[in-house]
Amino acid sequence: MTQPRLAHQTPQGRMYARSVSGLPEVPSITTVIGMERTDLDGWVGWMAANAVAQDPRLAESVGSPARLRQVARQCADAAARYRDAAAERGDRVHDYAEQVALRALGRPHTMADARARLIEHGEGAYADRFDEWWDLYDVQPVAAEITVWNHTVGYAGTLDLVARIGGRLCLIDYKTKGTGRDGRVKALDPKVVMQLTAGLKAEESLVDAEAGTWEPWAHGDAQMLLGVALGETEVAVHQANPNALPRHWHKFWALRQVWTHAQAVDDAGPALRVIGPPPVSSPGTAGGLEAARAAAFGGADRLQP
Questions:
Q1: Whole-angstrom Cα distance, residue 166 to residue 155?
Q2: Cα separation of 160 and 145, whole Å?
Q3: 167-188, pLDDT tens digit by residue?
Q4: Is the dihedral of CA 151, 152, 158, 163 positive or negative?
């Protein structure tokens, strides 16, 4: 994942500051969305098992528990390695897309270098498909990699592209996707709608990261929110359903509250503590027993709402 200038990786997730010299203040859009956990246990297990099955050492390791354990141990992180490689590829593709937009805007760019990096990694097809999409849709960029802020709810993020397509103002988020067995680019995660809606609801956009200057968000009236799946065989463009946007916004708002309460729980200290059983006493010592129990169960501590 790319790292905008005002974004910081923190124990609370990715957060944004108001200037280069400022401290992180609010969570990123993707951090908020990440509060809705996705169960990847099945995929992680399958990736590890598949890595073992394809390991060239497997045949010679059969019959040797020690060798099999070594193969299994070295293949256990297959999912993490795949994820990291996909993230690095996504960064390269996003960088190329940004450079194309900067060139079209007449601003300094490194488009040739970005394309060369893709080719170097055997990913030149992503650039080719992107160029085809850019020309076919006659994309007219307005702003690229623009950082936005919402004070009311408390979040920030960076939008891939604001552009005019077919005369309509569009907010666009790119997703680099693999290719399915049918040769088509894989589908987008519907969570991209939350991401785009949060961008639409921004209140400010960054002017100067060094100085920490911002201006009112000028594109909150965008007519279309587009998730663009960038693949090696094709580019698939998906429009966020306008009728569904309020529901996705409400869900994002709720996840933002979850993030706040998660930090409050972490700050409250350990959730559980060990206590011992009450002491055994002889009949006729009720008062002493009450005092002993109070001491054993933490003195004057009482459960509070």
A1: 31
A2: 5
A3: 999 999 999 998 988 999 999 9
A4: negative
One-letter amino acid identity for 235?
A: V
Identify each DSSP E strand in 47-131 by its residue range.
Answer: none
Share above pLDDT 90 across residues of the chain, in percent, rounded to a whole number: 66
DSSP calls for 17-29: -SSTTSPP-EEBH
DSSP E strands: which ranges in the chain? Answer: 7-10, 13-16, 26-27, 140-150, 155-165, 168-176, 204-208, 213-216, 224-230, 235-239
DSSP state of 155: E
Q: 124-146: b or e for each residue (b if 16 or more CB lie within 10 Å)?
A: bebbebbeebbeebebebbebbb
Has this prediction a pTM greater than 0.85? no
Bridging pattern class, strands 168-176 and 224-230: parallel
Residues whose CB falls within 8 Å of the CB of residue 241, separated by 6 or more in sequence, listed in order: 193
Residues making up the chain, counted from first to last: 305
In the chain, how long is the greatest CA-to-CA distance?
A: 92
Strand partners, 15: 8, 27
Given this model, what pLDDT does residue 305 score? 44
**Using an 8 Å Cβ cutoff, are 71 and 52 in contact?**
yes
Cα four-point dihedral sign 277, 281, 286, 290: negative
What are the extents of the domains in the chain? 7-37+90-266
CA 158/CA 148 separation, integer angstroms: 6
Domain 7-37+90-266 has CATH 3.40.50: no
Q: pLDDT band for 303, please (50, 70, 90 cuts).
A: very low
